[in-house]
Design goal:
Bound molecules: 3-[(carboxymethyl)sulfanyl]pyridine-2-carboxylic acid, manganese (II) ion
Number of strands: 33
Distance between the termini: 72 Å
Length: 596
């Protein structure tokens, strides 16, 4: 161990000989001027010490240890409760390399502007250096990151969401490369909040927020925005996808990766519990949010979940909607912005049981039943270890990953999109994925029912020009001998009365069964202008109160709706100018032709 002079006022010991890391920590310390530097080792003793410190200063509150052992509550600043896309930037030398769907700032300007906010930001604070691994330890598909932060809450969350500390430094080694992430709470003012990505340097700078995707830099910032750039450079895919294994009664498991825009129930699908009507079927959870997928030597696409935990949205989660999530979050979890019952248990709208007469709301204020305000913030979260999930796959940490047979893309559409359809081939599937769109819900800010185009569910997370990203997708498929088949699903189709036509939740297994049958060359399908639809009767509806007429409606394709959809997609493509791959425009025109 060498002694390492970090700042004029601080001497610390560095546990690594990685020169690049030591130099960067030095540089960060000179800029941020912390009182102390702590290299996070990930040990139990260190964790206990940090928890005590946070409990003493009120950053964390201990929850009912009988019902929720080792669980804690954090209340974030009320102005800091969600990812802030309008303050998130991609800083490439050329504006066009970020593309029209990203905010852009020139790297030098970003460094000047945000550097000024980091200058002295850690005075009086401890600077934590968190080495972490995204992906299973020892996997050739994993990558190392280092987050420097002045938030002990971030350290505690990163301990759940990643493999961090000494094991990560070991994986990094003396010469390894890593993604750099510098984070400071700053003064938490939205006016001085910036989440900057420098893909050319594999660097992230985040200041002014202590919340979720803005502050836990391994997640959206690294595993999607920076990793999508690395994936393009290195020939793989970094996607906003859950990964699940569907095991048949015969014991055969098929792996599916599925992309849905935020707020479409990815965590629920990843942890689906098969209904009693489907004996022998099992769903295994590999991941609920992000998939890193590499072509394997066998010509298949192999996926790992880069994360070690779930940062799930609490409201709406119950033992009815997601029993596996409820079991996962019952211990060793951190809750952010939920309400608390009088006996110290976490509470949110939609959780099991009756609404208590009184609660402490997400801001720490008294709340009484019947209040017009929500007790838990609509974006309140649980951070829970994936290994505690009852449905966690026995292969979730396999170093080589799991082989993906099918991709599902979907959005929340009241009309237009049928329950499920299959793309004709890879290029058509990529086109279908670029057409993903979702309607906003009451849980999101702004107007309800507004269609937001969200290609591959990656609009807020692609670290480079999305048109180039579509080009990358088009190139990956032909390099695979057994590319995944591509499907589009819509669990949210409504009838004229505004009621959902499909029961969703566990019954989605019936759609997954058809997907698996199609992957095995079985499963009846009929040709439609938009792709292959399930043949009548091909989706098992036995025991379900969904009539053949409703199934017909669920699988109907209205040419007028789809013509409008093709026009809207054309307008969306036009924003990307000449960079859209010609193949996608060819697919769009072919769709219009087929619609007649
Ligand atoms: O608001 C945040 O910071 C969290 S957003 C999030 C969290 C977990 C998984 N996905 C998302 C998302 O927005 O897609
Ligand atoms: Mn997500």
């Amino acid at each position: 161990m060498t002694t390492h002079i970090a700042t004029p006022q601080t001497t610390t010991h560095t546990p690594t000989t990685n020169a690049e890391l030591n130099a960067w920590v030095d540089e960060a310390a000179h800029l941020c001027k912390p009182d102390r530097i702590h290299w996070v080792d990930g040990s139990e003793a260190e964790h206990a010490r940090l928890l005590e410190e946070m409990l003493t200063e009120g950053t964390l509150l201990r929850l009912n240890g009988h019902h929720y052992p080792d669980c804690f509550l954090h209340r974030s600043d009320p102005s800091d409760v969600a990812r802030t896309e309008h303050l998130t930037f991609i800083c490439t030398s050329e504006k066009d390399d970020a593309g029209p769907s990203n905010n852009w700032m020139a790297p030098a300007e970003a460094k000047r502007k945000v550097g000024a906010l980091f200058d002295g930001a850690m005075r009086g604070r401890t600077m934590y250096v968190i080495p972490y691994v995204m992906g299973p330890l020892g996997s050739p598909l994993s990558k190392v990151g280092v987050e420097i932060t002045d938030s002990p809450y971030v350290v505690a969350n990163m301990r759940i969401m990643t493999r961090m500390g000494a094991a990560a430094l070991k994986q990094l080694g003396p010469d390894g490369t890593f993604v750099k992430g510098l984070h400071s709470l700053g003064d938490l003012s939205p006016e001085r909040r910036f989440i900057m990505h420098f893909p050319e340097e594999k660097l992230i700078w985040s200041v002014g927020s202590g919340y979720g995707g803005n502050a836990l830099l391994g997640k959206k910032c690294f595993a999607l925005r920076i990793a999508s750039v690395q994936a393009r450079e290195e020939g793989w895919l970094a996607e906003h996808m859950l990964i699940l294994g569907l095991e048949s009664p015969q014991g055969e498991t098929t792996y599916v990766a599925a992309a849905f825009p935020s707020a479409c129930g990815k965590t629920n699908l990843a942890m689906l519990v098969p209904p009693a009507s489907q004996p022998g079927w099992k769903v295994w959870t590999v991941g609920d949010d992000i998939a890193w997928m590499h072509p394997g030597p066998d010509g298949r696409l192999w996926a790992i979940n880069p994360e070690a935990g779930f940062f799930g949205v609490a409201p709406g989660t119950s033992s009815k909607t997601n029993p596996n999530a409820m079991a996962t979050l019952h211990s060793h979890s951190i809750f952010t912005n939920v309400a608390v019952t009088p006996d110290g248990s976490p509470w949110w709208e939609g959780i099991d049981g009756d609404v208590p007469a009184t609660l402490t709301d997400w801001r720490g204020r008294e709340w009484t039943r019947g209040s017009s305000e929500k007790a838990a913030h609509p974006n309140s979260r649980f951070t829970a270890p994936a290994r505690q999930c009852p449905s966690i796959s026995p292969h979730w940490e396999d170093p080589q990953g799991v082989p993906i047979s099918a991709f599902l893309f979907g959005g929340r559409r009241a009309r237009v999109a049928p329950l499920v359809f299959e793309a004709r081939d890879w290029a058509h599937g990529v086109f279908v994925a670029t057409a993903v769109a979702s309607e906003t819900t009451a849980a999101q800010s702004g107007a309800v029912g507004v269609v937001r185009r969200d290609p591959m569910a990656m609009l807020p997370f692609c670290g480079y020009n999305m048109a180039d990203y579509w080009g990358h997708w088009l190139e990956v498929g032909p390099k695979l001998r057994q590319p995944p088949r591509i499907f589009h699903v819509n669990w949210f189709r409504q009838g004229p009365d505004g009621k959902f036509l499909w029961p969703g939740f566990g019954e989605n297994l019936r759609v997954l069964k058809w997907v698996v049958e199609r992957c095995q060359g079985r499963g009846g399908a009929v040709e439609a202008p938009i792709g292959h639809l399930p043949a009548p009767g091909a989706i098992d509806t036995a025991g379900l109160s969904v009539s053949p007429e409703t199934m017909k409606e669920l699988l109907s394709v209205d040419p007028a709706d789809w013509r409008q959809e093709a026009v809207a997609l054309g307008e969306f493509f036009a924003k990307f100018g000449g960079r859209v791959p010609p193949e996608l425009e060819r697919q769009r025109r072919a769709l219009i032709d087929r619609l007649g």
